Amino acid sequence: MDTAIHTRALLASVSISSWTARKLDKAVTNKVHADYQASGKSGRYNKNLLPGDCPEYAALKTRVSTIRNGFYERTLPWTDDNRRLLPTDNFMHFSDWFREQSRLFAAELDAFVAVYPSARALAQSLMPNGLYKDADYPSDADVRKRFALSVSYDPIPAQGDIRVSLADDTIATLEQAIGDRLTAATETAMADAWKRLHEVTARMAERLNDPKAVFRDSLVDNVRDCVDMLKRLNVTGDPDLERMRADVADKLTQHSPETLRESDATRADVAAKANAILASMAGIYGGR
């Protein structure tokens, strides 16, 4: 199996822009400072430009958060910019997810644009005494342009693929730097994968070890989602991670939340298995 990172993954970047519906009002800020004889650094008055109930805008804000969080869940860290590591094994799953999110984003944007004029009119009635200003708002025709969603993909640079006219020793230095960066970034990505598995396992152990602890269905659902995702995020083919992932899937996700809540024996058994997995994981993940 080819384990070179540039053959097993690519870099993905999701770009989302949205209208914040907030605006700093300098005049009100200055008035507050003057009325209270306060320092100019004591505070700022930021207006909520849609103070009325606007579920269409709320749905768009929620969608933006869902997409951002989902992007992080389906990828691994890579660099300090917005690009993240997307294993090729997870590409189709990610593409299908992003296509559906794009469809929902577009539909919710259409809904908001349709009600924007009335939401703006309501804001005017709720912001008296000069708080409402036309200049704070995009026009009805331009508000759609304030929202955008896109994804882009880039290949991971391969060591030894520098095609420039430089001295051999300079090229060797650059290639070494690329190699070191790839190694460090790959280690960071895999550490994140291990961390995800460790966190959901530790959380389950913590809740189940306490017979009186109340837990939600998400305790089990999060473990199931994690082990499913890690099947496609194990970009280096780490056999230890796959073995531990399969162990968690086999021993910690076979019972429903209801069964774990209703059966003390089953709860104690799964708790013991979670403890054992954590102990095994400590010798591998802990050393990394």
What is the spatial order of strands in the main beta sheet?
Answer: 4-5-1-6
Whole-Å distance between the termini?
Answer: 23 Å
Given the C-alpha coordinates, what overall shape results? globular
Largest sheet: 4 strands, antiparallel
Summary, kept brief:
The chain has 288 residues and is an alpha+beta fold. It is built from nine helices and six strands.
How would you explain this protein's 3D organization?
By secondary structure, this protein is α+β, with helices and mostly antiparallel strands. A four-stranded antiparallel beta sheet has the order 4-5-1-6, with helices on both faces. The protein has two domains: 5-154, no CATH class; 168-282. Helix content is 58%, strand content 10%. It is globular and about 65 Å long. The protein has helices spanning 5-8, 26-35, 55-73, 91-126, 168-209, 218-233, 239-252, 257-262, 264-282, and strands spanning 9-17, 22-24, 46-48, 76-77, 84-87, 148-154. Residues 160-166 have low confidence and may be disordered. It is built from nine helices and six strands; from the N terminus they run αββαβαββαβααααα.
